[in-house]
Design brief:
With 163 residues, the protein is mainly alpha-helical. The protein has one domain. 53% of the residues lie in helices and 2% in strands. The protein is built from 6 helices and 2 strands. It has a two-stranded antiparallel sheet with strand order 1-2. Strand 1 and strand 2 form a beta hairpin. It is globular, with a radius of gyration of 22 Å.
């Protein structure tokens, strides 16, 4: 393990420069792989989920199981039709995707933007470890929009939003 100022460095061997800009070792700057760890893991997990949706077609009834909420209440949950929407997006059919679940389409697009911004910030060495926009206010807004979308789906005026 490398030492910095006589102490073992916790960053040894993980792609972190051992010295700061002034050469003192007081401010280790994470290396590229260390900075991109969060975005890469997130992109990998999303990629694996995407492959799963491509391999197992959600348009076949029961291929991904059944929605418990829909089964118990007869009403679609906020993500009912979401797997079909993602599958349709992957095949370039945006109209079918929006018809499957408009909220999931918006979430997929926003996730792509947030992941892109997070990756660029981490590449530049700026930004924090967590993705941007993960704040209490954004979480509250997402919750409110999801509840409104769900309730609207249940009304005659929002019948077009049902999967």
């Amino acid at each position: 393990m490398a030492t910095t100022g006589g102490a073992a460095s916790p960053f040894a061997g993980v792609g972190v420069e051992e010295t700061g800009p002034d050469g003192s070792g007081a401010h280790p700057r994470p290396g590229l792989l260390h900075r991109l760890h969060g975005p890469l893991v997130t992109a990998g997990a999303l990629g694996a989920a995407t492959v799963a949706v491509l391999v197992r077609d959600p348009h076949r009834p029961g291929s991904w199981g059944w929605c418990s909420f829909l089964g118990l209440t007869g009403l679609p949950c906020p993500v009912c039709g979401g797997l079909r929407a993602v599958n349709d997006l992957l095949h370039g059919d945006v109209v079918a995707a929006v018809s499957g679940n408009a909220l999931v389409v918006v979430i997929v697009l926003l996730t792509a933007v947030v992941l892109g911004v997070w990756t660029v910030r981490r590449l530049r060495g700026s930004g924090v470890e967590q993705p941007p926009l993960l704040t209490r206010a954004v979480g509250t807004a997402v919750l409110v929009v999801t509840v409104l979308f769900t309730v609207l789906r249940w009304t005659p005026a929002g019948a077009w939003l049902q999967p």
